[in-house]
Amino acid sequence: MEIKDKIERAVRGLYERLKGKSFELYTSTQRSVGLTPEISFEEMWEVYLAQPAIRAAVDFRADQVVGAGFFTTMNESYAEKHGGKTAKEFIDEFCEQIGLDQILQLAARNIVAFGNEFWWIKPEENRLVSIPLFKIQRITFKDDAPATL
């Protein structure tokens, strides 16, 4: 029996055992079902600021995730230009203008350390804004008017 067949049989067996049952996925901070996080957001923030080893570990992991930053490539045989620039040149200028590499680095650091990061896109200003860290209670979005930050 090939490994592919073994995996297929195991997955099929698991599916049959779970079929018809209901499951829910909860995050560690959802209190509505009685779960209390083991460490509060405030404690995570204090530890991150106070402990150089923890900050270094978080920064190292974020550096691994982001790497050298945002890099674009283009098929060299594609020669169409607009205003004398290729699509790659437009994208590279935009990324440099908004500081996408720095935004990605900050986002990775916040996600590794605190579990969330939110951006606000302001197309009319050609900007991308990183929203400061906050403890999430609930997120709702209603798209019925021009957005402001």
Question: In short, what is this structure?
Answer:
The chain is mostly helical and 149 residues long. It has helices at residues 3-18, 41-50, 52-66, 87-98, 100-114, and strands at residues 118-122, 127-131.
Give an overview of the whole structure:
- This protein has a domain of 88 residues.
- The protein contains five helices and two strands, in the order αααααββ.
- It is mainly α and 149 residues long.
- It has a two-stranded antiparallel ribbon.
- The N and C termini lie far apart (59 Å).
User: How large is the share of residues in beta strands?
Assistant: 5-15%
Placed side by side, the strands forming the largest sheet appear as: 1-2
Helix count?
5
Which sequence of SSEs, written as H and E, runs from N to C?
HHHHHEE
Shape: extended
Question: Which spans of ≥5 residues are poorly predicted at pLDDT below 50?
Answer: none
Average pLDDT, rounded to a whole number, is 76
Q: In total, how many beta strands? A: 2
Instruction: Report on the biggest sheet.
Output: 2 strands, antiparallel
Radius of gyration: 22 Å
Overall helicity:
40-55%
Q: Structural class of the secondary structure composition?
A: mainly alpha
| Cα distance spanning the termini | 59 Å
